[in-house]
Amino acid sequence: MRLDKLLKPKSIAIIGASEKAGFGGDTTRNFFRFTKKSEKVYLVHPKYDTVLGHKCWHSLDEIDDTIDLTVICTNQKTVIPLLEQASRKGCHAAVVFASGYGETGAEGKALQKELIDKCAELDIALMGPNCAGFANYVDDIFLFAFETEERERKGNIGMISQSGQIVLAGLDLPGIKFSYVISSGNSANVTVEDYIEFLVNDPDTKVVAAYYEGVKKPDVLERALRKAAQIRKPVIILKTGRSAKSKELASSHTGSLAGSDGAFRALLKKYGVIEAEDLEELFAHAKMFSALSEYPKGERFVFMNVSGGEAGVTADLADMSGITLADLSDETKEELKKMLPSYATVNNPLDMTASLGYDSDKLAAAFRYLFKDPGVDSICLGYTITPEIWDTTVDYMVEAIQMVSNDADRKPIFWLPFIEHTRHPKSAQILEECRVPLLFTGKYGLKSLKKLMDFLKFEYEDTPASLPEKPFGKKTRVYTEYESKMFLAERGVPVVPQEIALTAEEAAEAAERIGYPIVLKINSKDIMHKSNVGGVKLNLMNADEVKEAFESIISSGRKHCPDADIQGVLVAHMLKSGVEVIVGVKNDPQFGPMIMAGLGGVFVEIFKDVQTALAPITKKQAMDMIRALKGFPLLDGYRGAEKLNVDALSDFLVAVSDVAAQEKHVIKEMDINPVLVTKEGVEMADALLISYEEEE
Amino acid sequence: MRLDKLLKPKSIAIIGASEKAGFGGDTTRNFFRFTKKSEKVYLVHPKYDTVLGHKCWHSLDEIDDTIDLTVICTNQKTVIPLLEQASRKGCHAAVVFASGYGETGAEGKALQKELIDKCAELDIALMGPNCAGFANYVDDIFLFAFETEERERKGNIGMISQSGQIVLAGLDLPGIKFSYVISSGNSANVTVEDYIEFLVNDPDTKVVAAYYEGVKKPDVLERALRKAAQIRKPVIILKTGRSAKSKELASSHTGSLAGSDGAFRALLKKYGVIEAEDLEELFAHAKMFSALSEYPKGERFVFMNVSGGEAGVTADLADMSGITLADLSDETKEELKKMLPSYATVNNPLDMTASLGYDSDKLAAAFRYLFKDPGVDSICLGYTITPEIWDTTVDYMVEAIQMVSNDADRKPIFWLPFIEHTRHPKSAQILEECRVPLLFTGKYGLKSLKKLMDFLKFEYEDTPASLPEKPFGKKTRVYTEYESKMFLAERGVPVVPQEIALTAEEAAEAAERIGYPIVLKINSKDIMHKSNVGGVKLNLMNADEVKEAFESIISSGRKHCPDADIQGVLVAHMLKSGVEVIVGVKNDPQFGPMIMAGLGGVFVEIFKDVQTALAPITKKQAMDMIRALKGFPLLDGYRGAEKLNVDALSDFLVAVSDVAAQEKHVIKEMDINPVLVTKEGVEMADALLISYEEEE
Question: Looking at per-residue confidence, does B364 or A603 come out higher?
C-alpha cells in the first residue's frame, strides 16, 4: 500500500475535470479554490483544452510525467480502463468517487471485487469507491468533492470517515483544524484501519479522529492502536454498531460488516483509545486534544465562573461527569479572598463575582496563585459566550489569560460554555491563540475533560492482543466438566483433584485418594444441567455414602436421559463455600479471545455486573477488572467480613487468559462457573468448554 | 401578592432613568428599544427634564397617576424611601436591581429582612433585590437590564431564573421565543415558586422553564406543580444542588438554602415535572415543547437520514436514550422500497439516500405513507445543517414538509442535527413556520424526545403531597422494635403477633398464645444491634426452649451492656423465610415524608437499588416503585421460582406511606428492615422508628 502516493502525491491527474456540476466540476473547482500550490496537477478531459483557465489534457497518455495519484471523477464503467492507463504512467494511487459497488446489490459487490483485484494487480492504493475524496492540509492538496466555506483549516487533527457527509460537517465546524480529512467511502482497498495507521505514524498529525462502521483489517487496527498507545498519540473513535439496530444498518450502508462490538470496545480499552458515543463527542474530544498545548499534570480542576448560578451548574456537571475538583490550599484561599467582595466565599467552583471577572489584573493574579498551588492541575473558566458579551465581559478574561500566557509555571486553562451560542468563530480563534481549548457545550465539554483524564491516567503495558491468524473451524464440540477442567489443568490452570469412576467401587477408591468430603457428578457430554436430573451428590463423607450416591446418580441419569451416553461419574473434593465468581472466555472472529469476570448469580444476571478484556491480560489488568466490578466490596471485606483472596483470583484470571490466548483457534467459548473465592484462594467448581474442531 | 401589578403593569415608573451606563441608563434604553407601546411609562430622575427625548419627572410625587409598578434603578440606600413614596401612588409592585442584600454577609441579610418587612407592610410584590428585571413579551413590556440583540422573541415559553446571566443566555439563543423572562435575583419577596405559579396559570404561557437554586416556599411550589399536572402544562426545572458541592455553593450564592435534593426530585416526579440536568437541557426541552404544535399519539419514532452513517449514529443514540423505534408495516416498507434504489434496504432509522432526500415529491409521498402507518407516531429527520447546505439539500426536505403541512392525518415531525453548526437562525425560523421543532444537537436532542415521551406517559393521580405545616421538633426519641411495630399496628399496618415478656415464665406463656416457632429478641431502647450482644434467639419450638432462651438473652444483654435499660424480651412468631425488602420513611423539612423501598442487603448497600416517592402514595405508584427496582426479577419468579406476592408488598407500602403522611410531625425516620416477601404475603421482621418530640 503506497499511502504516501495516495495522500502525499507529488503529481496528480484529475480525470473528468470540468466546469460543470458533478464530481468532475466540483473537485476541480474546489482544488483551485483551496490549493495554493498547484504546479503538479494535470486536468484530463477528452473534450476540453482548458478548464477554469487551466490547461486540460485529452488523456493520461498525453502527459509527459509520472503520475502519483489519479483522481477519477468519471462513472463506474470508466474506472478499470483508467486505472490501467494510469498504471502505465507509474501511478500507484487513485481516488474513485463513482458509486454502484459494494454498497449496492450482488452485482455491485462483484464489481467491487473486480476493482480490488485490479488494484492488487497494478499495486494501486485506492480511496473509495463511493467516496468524497480527501484534503491534505499539510502539503496543501485539496481533493474533497463537497462544497465548504472558505476558511483557514490547516491544523493537527487527522480525520477519517466512511461518510463524506460527516467529513463535511467536521470541516464546517468553527475553530477546528486538520492535518488530513479523508472520506474513505466503501474502504474497499485502502481501509479505515490503513488510514488510522498512516495518521498514527504521521508526524504532522497530533490527534486521530475516526468515524467507523465496520472493521475490515483487525490486525492493522491492532497494530496502529498499539503504536498510538506506545507513542501516546490520542486516537478518538466513533463506531456505530453499539446497538443491535445500528449493527443491522452498518451492514447495509457501505457494505462492511460491523464486527463484534464487545471485542472491538475491549480493543479500544486495551490501548487507551478514546471512544466517542456520537458525532458531537467525536469532534468535541478531537478539538480539545488538538488545541491543548500541554497536558495537565493531574486530575484536579479549579472551575471559575462569573455567575454563582453557573458555578452551581458546573458543580453538578463535574459531579455527573466524574471530574475531580481541586482542594485549594489555605494560602490560595486567603489570596483569592482578598480579591473578592467581603461577603464572598472562596469555593471550587469559584464564583468570581464582578470583582475578579471584570478585572484583568486581579484575574491574572488569581491565575498565578492557582499556578503556584500544588493542589491544582488545571483551570477551567466557565462562561456562556453570547454574541453580545464577547466584546465586553469576555475581553477582561481573555486579557488576563494573555497576561499569564508565557508564565513558566502556567497550567492548562480550558473554557466551558453552558449554552451553545453559535460556536462563535471569533472566540474560537482568539482562545486558540491563547492556547485555551474552547470546549463544546455543557455535558459534551465535561465529557471531553473526563476523556482527557482517562487518557492521561492510562498506562499501557506492552502485551499485544492475540488476534486470530485464520478463520475458526465451523464444527464445534462440547467438553464434559471433567474434560474441560483437564484441558485447563494441562495448560497450567490450578484444578482441584478429580477422577472419573465408572463403577461404585472405583468411585469409592477415588474418594479415598482425593479425600473427604466428596462430591459426585454425572459424567456425560449429553447432560448439561446435571442437577436437574439428580446427577449431583454433595458432601459425601465416607465410602458407603459415595457408593450409594454413585448408584443413585447413574440410575437417575438413565431414567431422566435414557439416550444419554453416561460415562460414570466425576469424583472430586467438595469445595469450601466462598463468594461465587463467574469467569468466562468468548472468542471473537476479528479480535480473538476475550476474558470475562463477574460475581455469580443475580449479580451477573440481573445487574450485568461484568468486566471484559481482550486476552491475554496482565496481572494489573486482572486486578483492574476485579476492582471495577460494582460488587467488588463483596470480595473486599464487606460488612466487616474477612477480605477474600483477590490476589489469587487475579492470578487465576491471568492463567485463564493465557490459555485463551494460546488456544485461540481451539476455544470457542468457556464458562468457569462458579469459581469459589475464599480467604485462602480460589477453586474452580465447574467448567464448560466449547471448542472449534478442525474440519476433516 | 399582586403579581399582575408586577408582571402586567398598566403604568410604570422607572426611577433613576438616565442616558448613562448602569442600571438606570440600560433599563431606560432597553425599554425604548424593545417596547413598542410605551404610553404609560414615567421616567423619574431628580436632575433631568428629559431622558432619551422622553419627558422625565423629578420625583414620583410629581406624577398625577396611579403607578402599578416602580422600577428602582438607584442604589440600595434609596430603596425603602422610594417604596414608601411609590406606595402613596397606589403602587403594589417594584423591581429592585440594587445588590448588597441577602447575597452578602450578616448586614446585607438584615437589610433584606427590613426590605421584606416593608413590602409586607405596604403590600408590595417585589422582584429582586439583586436581580436584572424581566420582560413581558405578551403585553410588550421590556424591563430587563442587560444588553441583548434586537430580534423578535414573542412566544410561549415562560422562563424564570435567579441568575440574570442565565436569562441573558436564553434570550440570545436563536429560535427560542418567550411569553415572559424573569430574573428573580435574591427572590426575597416574590420567589421563584410564585413566578412558577403565575406562569402555570398564565394562558399565554405554554411551557414553564425555571432555573433554580433553592426552594423557599415548598407549599406554593407544590400547589403550582399540582396545577400544572392537572392541566398538563409542561414545566421544566433545572435545580442545582444535586451534588454536595453545588449545594454548598447555592447557600452562598443568592442566599437561599438548597432544600433536600431527594425530596425535591421526588416532588418533581410526583407531578410529572421535566427535570433538566444542565442549562443546555433546560433550553433544549423548553424549545421543543414550545415549537411542538401537537403531541405524538405514542412513543414510536421513525428516523430518516440522508447519510447511512448518520442513520447508524441515530440508531445508537436512540438506543442509549431509550427512544422506541417504530416497526414499519409491510405496506409502508413496500411503498418506501419503490422509492429507493433497488439495492437499498428499508430500515428504521432509514437511510433515505439521494433518491428520497433530494426529491420533495417523493419525500412528501413517503411522509404520507408514514402518516397512514398505524405503527408510527412521529417522524424525526436527522440532518446536520452546515451553513453551506441550508440552501441546497435542506430545501428539498423543507419543501416536502411544507407539502404535507396541512394533511389531516399529519404526525409530528422533528429535526435532529448531529453536530452543532450555528443553531442557524434561518433554519430555526423556517422549521418553526413548518411546525417542526429543531432539536438541540445529538444527545441533547434525543434527551428532549425522551422527556417528551415521559411527559406524555405520565398519568397524574390526584393525591396532594403531604407537606409539613410547622417546623419539626428538635428533640428526637428512638423507639424500641416493640414500640415501633405497635406504632404501625395501631395505625393499621399489619404486624405479626408480638408481646413483651419480663420473665421467662411470661415469655413461655406468650409463646403459647402466639404459636410456635417463636423468636425472642432483647427489648431495650439502649440496644440497637440486638444480634451483636446475643440478644436474639430464633426458631424456638417449645416452652422449655423459650425459657432457656429468655435467661440466656437477659444475661448476655446484661454482660455486654451493663448500663442498658433492659425491659425483658420481645416474643414473636418466627417468620417464614422470604425475599428481604427494606421499607423506609424519611421526613424532609420542606416536602414532608418520603417513602423508600429496596431489596435488602447488598442490593441496597452496594447497588443502591432503591426507589423513593413522596408520601402518601397510591397503589399504582407503589407498584411502579416496586417494578422500577433493578432487582424486581427476584420478586417476580426469578429463574423459575414462584412469583412472590408483589400485590401485598404494594399494599404494605401504601399503608406505611399513609402512616407517614398522617404522622408527618411525629416520624423523623423509620426503617422497616427486613420486610419478608413470600408467595403468601409480606411480614415485618423488624422496625425502628425515630420520632420528633414536642418541646416542653
Answer: B364
Contact check, Cβ <8 Å, A384/B147: no
As a whole number of angstroms, the distance between CA B34 and CA B141 comes to 8
* Angle value at C-alpha A672, between A671 and A676, nearest 5 degrees: 150
Q: Is the pLDDT assigned to residue A35 strictly greater than 60? A: yes
- Residue B274: phi and psi, rounded to 5, are -85, 120
Return the CATH number of the domain spanning residue range B579-693.
Answer: 3.30.470.20
Strand partners, A15: A44, A72
**Beta-carbon separation of A634 and B312 below 8 A:** no
What distance in Å separates residue A344's CA from the closest CA in chain B? 7
Nearest-Å Rg of the Cα atoms of chain A is 32
Q: At what angle do helices A504-514 and A543-560 cross, to 10 degrees?
A: 130
Q: ∠A665-A668-A674 over CA atoms, to 5°?
A: 130
Q: For domain A1-132, say whether CATH 3.40.50.720 is its number.
A: yes
**Beta bridge partners of residue A236, listed in sequence order:** A209, A274
Task: Select from A249, A279, A345 the Cβ nearest to the Cβ of B418.
Answer: A279
Backbone angles phi and psi of B73, in degrees to 5: -95, -5
CATH fold label, A148-291: Rossmann fold (3.40.50)
Cα-flanking dihedrals φ and ψ of residue A317, to 5°?
Answer: -60, -45
For residue A126, what is its C-alpha cell? 485506492
What class has domain B298-457? alpha beta
Chain A nearest C-alpha distance from B167 (Å): 11
Residue B413: which H helix or E strand, with range?
strand B413-416
CA–CA distance, B342 with B363 (Å, rounded to integer): 17
Q: Is the per-residue pLDDT at A250 higher than 80?
A: no
SS (H, E, C) B53-117: CEEEECCHHHCCCCCCEEEECCCHHHHHHHHHHHHHCCCCEEEECCCCCCCCCHHHHHHHHHHHH
Q: B534: buried, middle or exposed (CB in 10 Å: 19+, 13-18, 0-12)? A: middle
| pLDDT (mean) for A127-156 | 93
Q: How many helices (H) and strands (E) does chain B have?
A: 23, 30
Instruction: Please list every residue in chain A whose beta carbon sits closer than 8 Å to the beta carbon of residue B639.
Output: 605
pLDDT score for B472:
87
Q: Would the CATH topology of A148-291 be identical to that of A579-693? A: no
CATH architecture for residues B1-147: 3-Layer(aba) Sandwich (3.40)
Domain residue extents for chain A: 1-132, 148-291, 304-457, 497-573, 579-693
Query: pLDDT tens digits, residue range A255-289?
Result: 444 456 889 999 999 999 999 999 999 999 999 99
CATH number of this structure's domain A497-573, picked from the four choices 3.30.930.10, 3.40.50.300, 1.10.3720.10, 3.30.1490.20: 3.30.1490.20
Q: What ipTM describes this predicted complex? A: 0.92
Please compute the mean of the pLDDT values over residues A584-589 and round it to a whole number: 92
Q: Is B305 helix (H, G, I), strand (E, B) or coil?
A: strand
Q: In terms of CA atoms, which chain A residue is nearest residue B348?
A: A245
Mean pLDDT, chain A, integer:
91
The confidence score (pLDDT) of residue B695 equals 60
Q: How far is B165 from chain A (nearest CA, A)?
A: 7
Shortest Cα–Cα distance, B313 to chain A (Å)? 6
With beta carbons less than 8 A apart as the criterion, state whether A284 and A439 touch: yes
Q: Residues of A with CB below 8 A from B265's CB?
A: none
Q: State whether A420 and B440 contact (CB < 8 Å).
A: yes
Please give the share of chain B, as a percent, with pLDDT higher than 90.
75
Residue in B243, B307, B325 nearest the CB of A319: B243
- Could you give the C-alpha distances from A440 to A169, A324, A387, B641, in angstroms and in order? 15, 19, 16, 50
Architecture of domain A304-457: 3-Layer(aba) Sandwich (3.40)
Given this structure, which CATH class describes domain B150-291? Answer: alpha beta
* Residue B640 scores a pLDDT above 50: yes
